[in-house]
Amino acid sequence: QVQLTEAGGGSVQTGGSLRLSCAASGYTYGSDCMAWFRQFPDRAREGVAAIYTAGTSTYYADSVKGRFTLSKDNTKNTVYLQMNGLKPEDTAMYFCAAAPGCGSNWYQSARYSYWGQGTQVTVSS
User: Fold this and answer.
1) Is 15 left (phi over 0), alpha (psi -120 to 50) or beta?
2) What are the φ/ψ torsions at residue 60 (nearest 5 degrees)?
3) CA 88 to chain centroid
4) 8-46 confidence digits (pLDDT tens)
């Protein structure tokens, strides 16, 4: 049974930082695209960032470039999203997702077969 388990959400003030983690289990964690999406009320899920677990490629949405950083620990089947310089507009439910392979279409949610349960990030002004 495939499981993606997120942790690390919470509430911070503008300019604060949070680190989200996503631990994968129940499948062969190898050449995958591990991504973070966020869901705002009344809007489609938005791709935030993605990392290729078998290499060094990372992808970021323009809205988070320079503020968010992805990293991975393949020994723990875990990816991390370090979020610095948080803004109120970053407030959303954040989801981890997994798909085979990463590419220029990493931000398309339909590519991803596996999803975590989500973790809430709230940034107050």
Assistant:
1) left
2) -135, 145
3) 18
4) 999 999 999 999 999 998 876 677 899 999 999 888 899
- Decide: 61 and 36 in contact? Cβ < 8 Å: no
Please give the structure tokens belonging to residue 68.
């968010």
Per the structure block, which two tokens stand in for 99? 């798909």
Let me know: does 106 contact 35? Beta carbons within 8 Å.
Answer: yes
State the burial class of residue 97 (Cβ atoms within 10 Å of its Cβ: 0-12, 13-18, 19+). Answer: buried
Q: Token digits for 69?
A: 């950083």
